[in-house]
Amino acid sequence: MADLVKKDIIEEKASENKTVCFEASITDDDERIDKVVTNWFQDLSRSYIQKMIKDGNVFVNEKIVKANYRVKEGDVIRCTIPACVEPEILAEDMPLDILYEDEDILVVNKPKGMVVHPSAGHYSGTLVNGLLFHCKGQLSGINGVFRPGIVHRIDKDTTGSLIVCKSESAHKAIAEQLKEHSVTRKYRAIVYGNFEQEEGTIDAPIGRDIHDRKKMAVNEKNGKSAVTHYRVLEQFKGYSYIECQLETGRTHQIRVHMTSIGHPLLGDEVYGNRMSKFKLQGQCLHAMIIGFVHPLKKQYMEFTAPLPEYFTHLLQIL
Predict the structure, then answer these.
(1) Which helix (H) or strand (E) holds 186?
(2) Which of 28, 104, 155, 268 is catalytic?
(3) Residue 35 is inside which H or E element, if any?
(4) Does domain 2-81 have CATH number 3.10.290.10?
């Protein structure tokens, strides 16, 4: 065990499980073991960590502990993360609003409430399930069995245009354009409050919220560069209809940025903290325009996803 203590973290494969060892630091002192382990594994929930502890997969100084064990500085913690059993992702016949399609790519208008790709708790009814049926399995496999064809994402309750890649070459080309920030991505949103200026730019890094790991936030210390350009299209009493153009593509970027300047999106219960008087399903955000250079034709192409009915109805009310 002395050799393990000398290293910050050690990973090894054993029977397809992953074993991770680390030494508790002074900031971990007197914290519960389930909280300390959760802080180490940002992609695992606290409830999952608690189950690992209950199942005897977490050791402190080579002894099994309970979730309420108080960690001491210098404790050596060993966790065995069970190998994931990947469920089969099935093709499902569902209506898809295809804006464009050829043998290499397609552009789809995603509806509200649809998850883009399978994940824990969402193994059916996702866009990927529908794409597998529509494309007869002909999708790029670069992002694995859970995300075939998916080169970028939008949130479950965000509607609008999304590029899907059928071939590996198309996937690599679109991914490179996204990396270079050369893809045109214009969104429409309804936000709280009115603006004094008709347009502006938010240049603020986004990273994990230090107070809530399930949320993103403007994080000057650990965030990644994020830039959003916005312009006001129309103002109402207490609300504004705006267009946002992404220069970067961070998780929840528009939602976080608009909240950071005091204009959270209408319906956004995660970042807005305001109760909407309208019956809404999540934030009023629509990926309206997407433009890119076709990976094989080498021509710039741009597509517009029409505003969804709930959005136009809300604008009429306002």
Answers:
(1) strand 184-192
(2) 155
(3) helix 33-40
(4) yes
- 149-170 tens-digit pLDDT: 999 999 999 999 999 999 999 9
Total-model pTM: 0.75
CATH number, domain 181-305, options 3.30.2350.10, 3.90.940.10, 3.90.580.10, 3.40.640.10: 3.30.2350.10
**Is 157 tagged catalytic?**
no
Q: What is the pLDDT of residues 59-71, one digit of tens each?
A: 999 999 998 999 9
316: exposed, middle or buried (C-beta count within 10 Å: 0-12, 13-18, 19+)? exposed
Cβ–Cβ < 8 Å for 191, 283:
no
3-state secondary structure 260-298: HCCCCECCCCCCCCCCCCCCCCCCCEEEEEEEEECCCCC
Could you tell me the two tokens for 281?
């399903």
pLDDT in tens, 261-286: 999 999 999 999 888 889 899 999 99
